[in-house]
Hints:
By secondary structure, the chain is α/β, with parallel strands linked by helices. The chain has a single domain (5-268), classed as TIM Barrel. It contains 9 helices and 8 strands. Helix 1 (17-26) links the parallel strand 1 and strand 2 (31-34). Helix 1 (17-26) runs parallel beside helix 2 (39-52) and helix 8 packs across helix 9. The longest helix is centred in the C-terminal third of the chain and has 23 residues, at 246-268.
Amino acid sequence: MNWRIGLNAGAxxxxxxIESVPIIKANGFDAVFTGYKTKEYAVELANHFSAAxxxxxxxxxxxxxxxxxxxxxxxxxAMLATLLDCMEGCEAAGVPIxxxxxxxxENPPPITDLGRARFDTLIETAGKKNITLAFENQRKVANIAxxxxxxxxxxxxxxxxxxxxxxxFTPGRRYMPLFGKKLVCTHIHDNIGHPTxxxxxxxxxxxxxxxxxxxxxEDIAASPYRGTLMMEVTTKHTDMYENYxxxxxxxxxxxxxxxxxxxxxxxxxx
Length: 270
């Protein structure tokens, strides 16, 4: 299978995002994703990516303060408004997927009726706008399990598998056997995970840490997902890449994700 490959634009520390676009394209990437600032900026980015021949596949919604969405008060209402604004940006920019966190930190609030009501609004709006919400695994499996159990038939409710988060935040747990049928996008990166203890989330390139990428490939191959192998990587959390230019680092990134694509094909028997 000829897998599409992608990564987060602007991943090389110190280089403006727009300057990374031609380098990303030159290294054979097919798609990108970004974070979110404003609707206008999302449209501007979409135009840059389109001109370069890159698909703008997803926007990562803001997540600072996401725990407030489960709590009473104006801060929870403001968090919902932030997510709805991001959805407006996705729609304006023609981006089909919005990646969403459900909680943050070691001790997030419990699932509440008020939080459910806010997510009802978000999910209903996504259905009307034809935006897919990709809920990403963090530290709490219960939140991910809740959203797929509570909205089992909503086509806009899908899964973003972050294999790096799985390794460093929930060692020993495997998300894909549970939620792989809902997979709509990936966040692929490596870290120096510990088999039983939580470890730093450093987002280095695949094969530069100690995640078992043969197992990652097997999990992807076992799912119905045949979309883009999308990385979420950066140079900013480590000095591992301090001697690489942007051109060298993006070339290394492309080689790493193509290596994973080969492992996926091996797992598929191709």
